[in-house]
User: What shape does this take?
Amino acid sequence: MKHNGMNRRNLHTAQASSYPNNESRNPTARRRVLIAAVLSLLTLAACPLRSHATQPESLASIEARAKAGDTRAEYNLGVLYLLGKGVQQDSTAAAAWIGKSADQGYAPAEFDLGLLNLNGQGVPENDQQAASLLRKAADQGYAEAERNLAVLYVRGQGVPQDDTQAALWFLKAAAQGNQRAQLNLGILNLNGQGVPQDDALAAIWFRKAAEQGDPLAQANLAEMYLHGKGLAQDYVQAASWYRKAADQGSALAQYNLGLLNIYGQGVPHDDAQAVIWLRGAAEQGHAKAQYYLGHMYLKGQGVSQDYAQAALWFRKAAEQGIALAQTNLGQLYVDGHGVPQSYQEAFAWFLKAADQNEPFAQGSLAVMYAKGQLNPANPAQEIMWLTLASEKISAAKTYLDEISKKMPPEQIAEGRRLTQQWLAAHPQEAQ
Assistant: This one.
């Protein structure tokens, strides 16, 4: 049965003219993102040379004292081997000399040897041994050992997973001014992980780390101000802290600062400035920033309209799974804007987005099936995608009601069967 089909252009324009709800406006989603970012930072950094001599000491002097059993000299010699300073870089020799110092209870050596065990650098990888060594250094009040031991408890790496123990060790390090511990402790308070949930206390710890210049803490504090979590909502303060983090290259902060410029929250509305911040984040691979930058090129906001650039940035975001980017890229293929016109490519991108329950992509597929743009018209598929889209798009619901009066009952029944089949195969997306 032939019919005119839903007005796809109106459907697309309605979506493109407004910004969707996004992760930066979802505090729960943001919390998950932030804690994942912070607790993946346990890596072996270049260890500082810890010499207590008042004058620079020669390699020969350090070696002589180390061979005589001087604890700090053993450690310093190990660091020289680790860094390849004055000697050929040798992780095995580094671990051996640092180990000698650790055997004498020198906390910095215990800490560094713990990280060497954790990374399998100069010694076999051994999480349990790493945790044991970090605990020895932590018991002496060594702040970085306290922080790293806390991370192991969060991960359950080398020790049983225990958020309460993690919070205790983060607190010990945070009390000594360790900014990463302060940041992590803020996140645990924010999530009620190992400690009672407390937004106000989370904000306090974020501020302590932020004032020491930690960009993720600055971004977290900005988020608290943005949503009024633990302190009074203040867009100006949110923008200020995002700016501090953005100036340090934080893609997360650059993305959010771009949105604040778009919405005129805490800063004057400025699309051109928004594009600058979004581009900074997009070029670092931030998927949502890539989507918004594509949108700015699509609409000519803050930049000259450029469909090719819109397609480029939509594609980058689409390849990272951003459903709205997939939908917009599909529409560019339908129209042949910025890309060669191709219904096949459009269908492929619409389908990727539709399978994430993106309603405008679902509506677009309904249009393609109605018009037979790839194959002969398929009313049952049209009904299925319209039914799914109608949950969120009133135009789709109106049109579904209209064509349902004209279609044979068997086509409508088949469309409903396909809908139930899709919902059963996509339980998470359908929620």
